[in-house]
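Example 3.2
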Amino acid sequence: MSYKNSVKRHNHKVHTCEVSRKQNLLKHLIDVYEDKKVLVLSKANSKTTEIEDKNLTLSNDTELCNFKEGSFDVLISFDLPADADTYMKRIAYTSTMALILVSVEEEALLYPIETLLGKNLPREVVPGFEVLRSNKTKNPPHRPTKSQVAEEEAAKERVREKQARLRERAEKRGEEVSAEDLKKIEDDETKYLKDSKADKKEQKNGNNNFGKKEWDKKSTDYRGKNDSSTKRKPKIIVLPAKKATK
């Protein structure tokens, strides 16, 4: 499917800002283009801002069909739809300029749009609405692999079975199992396993062994002896001293 786009590349811009400042950025852009006929679009049932202006129209994707294509000078997308095709329908209603307001979390929605357009959209920071570095997306926390999840489930099942047998033996003797004994069984079975809470705690504390199993933390050489390095030490060959000639 091909798309016709009459908006020139330098008039098709992306303004990145923090989510909490989107409303203020929108008001600022409306003031900048106060002499233009502006259409502000958002996803269905999403709220933009309360602005009254004779040259301004607030709408959403479900009501877009009520307007005539190319009838607005400036299109401002307050947010992006999940479907790139829906955005392509938006830009048919502007004749001059298309602006997109996105937060750092929404930037991934731009890639399929740029693919359909066949070009990268220019990013332009509006002075006073810069995104602080500390607010950028951080690396996701560690997630266990499928084998780690299966291993953890198996360990939990062994804990339940051993605790049940301990309760049965104690019941036959007319005794009660202490919480310490139950906890000891759990600790013995799961001492080498790390759940997601423990991983997050390690990451927060800056542990260099984050995400490793307990048995991976100690490196050993090929003979099984503890060594600070996993590399084999070079073998030193001592040449025999020459015999003194008489």
